[in-house]
Specification:
8-stranded mixed β-sheet, 11 helices, alpha/beta
Length: 322
């Protein structure tokens, strides 16, 4: 009697066991906190979500809309932003959802967006800095910054600073910065901001995510006593469009593995929503949360207060209006 490997892989028992394993793995991806079970309402509250036209940002914005908030989708692409706008309005039944254009890689765009918000909005209760990019080709922006650093860090830093007074006027208010567990692979070298001394392109994302946490912790320290909190988080490895700038083979492998092991965008949005709306987060600031909404310690550089002061001062100088 002879047999081949294909006989095993296509055997009904093998197929059944594989399906059961897949279901168990997918079930384990869900955390214990369920946004649908959270009774918090946001009627009368205003929230901004950057990068809200797709992925995690869209599901965060949808949750806020379902809670009755006035939601501003801060998106780079007008067509995709409008599509998300219509979808969120339809799914939530909330017509108080609006699109404003923002490209965080451009400090000029950030200033224009912030000026519009300050002119139109009387209050701002939640700011979610979600927009980010990975795998971008090496490029220096018109303002002289490495494009991934501008998109993921300097743009959100400037945006938050420009809206701080409005947040303080609207207390209690929350700032939520989406970082990544990849920050453990990041390094701090402030020459990176200008595109210098970057040896491996794929590590740039990790560097920016480390800077996100360092900045968030220092921001939280400076906001003590104001009624505004600032926290950062790892959303989990998720099936989002984060890989859109990589080659087709890497995207295929990512999606193949991700089907079984990675979170969906909706699942990955959970701890961002948790940090932004849950009663448990009231008054909590300067902390870092894992994808299951648990409080964990980030890497040692992220916890260095002296580095946080330096980070803040350098970013303020780089983003100052020329």
């Amino acid at each position: 009697m002879t047999w081949e490997w294909s006989d095993i892989f296509f055997h009904p028992l093998w197929v059944l066991l594989t399906a059961i394993l897949a279901m168990i793995v997918r079930a384990q991806r869900k955390g214990s906190w369920d946004p649908r079970a959270c009774p918090v309402e946001l009627k009368g509250k205003t929230a901004i979500v950057t990068g809200a036209n797709t992925g995690i940002g869209k599901f965060v914005a949808l949750d806020f809309a379902r809670r009755g908030a006035r939601v501003i989708l801060a998106c780079r692409n007008k067509a995709r932003g409008n599509a998300a706008l219509q979808e969120i309005r339809e799914c939530s039944g909330n017509q108080n959802v609006h699109l404003r254009l923002l490209d965080t890689s451009s400090l000029a765009s950030v200033r224009q967006f912030a000026d519009q918000i300050l002119e139109e909005e009387k209050e701002l209760h939640i700011l979610v800095n979600n927009a980010g990019a990975s795998g971008l080709p090496r490029e220096i922006t018109a303002e002289g910054f490495e494009i991934t650093f501008a998109t993921n860090h300097l743009g959100p830093f400037l945006l938050t600073n420009l809206l701080l007074d409005l947040l303080k006027k609207s207390t209690p208010a929350r700032i939520v910065n989406v970082s990544s567990a990849n920050h453990w692979k990041g390094q701090v070298d402030f020459s990176h901001f200008r595109g210098e001394n970057l040896t491996l392109a794929h590590t740039v994302y990790s560097h920016t995510k480390l800077h996100n946490i360092i900045w968030t912790n220092e921001l939280a320290r400076r906001l003590q006593g104001t009624g505004v909190t600032a926290n950062s988080l790892h959303p989990g490895v998720a099936m989002t469009e984060v890989m859109r700038n990589y080659n087709i083979i890497l995207r295929f492998l990512f999606n193949l593995v991700g089907f079984f092991f990675f979170k969906s965008s909706e699942e990955a949005a959970v701890n961002t929503i948790y940090c932004a709306v849950s009663d448990e987060m009231e008054g909590i600031s300067g902390k870092y949360f894992d994808s299951d909404c648990s409080l964990i310690l980030p890497s040692p550089p992220a916890r260095d207060p002296a580095l946080g002061v330096k980070e803040f001062e350098i970013c303020e100088r780089l983003t100052a209006k020329p």
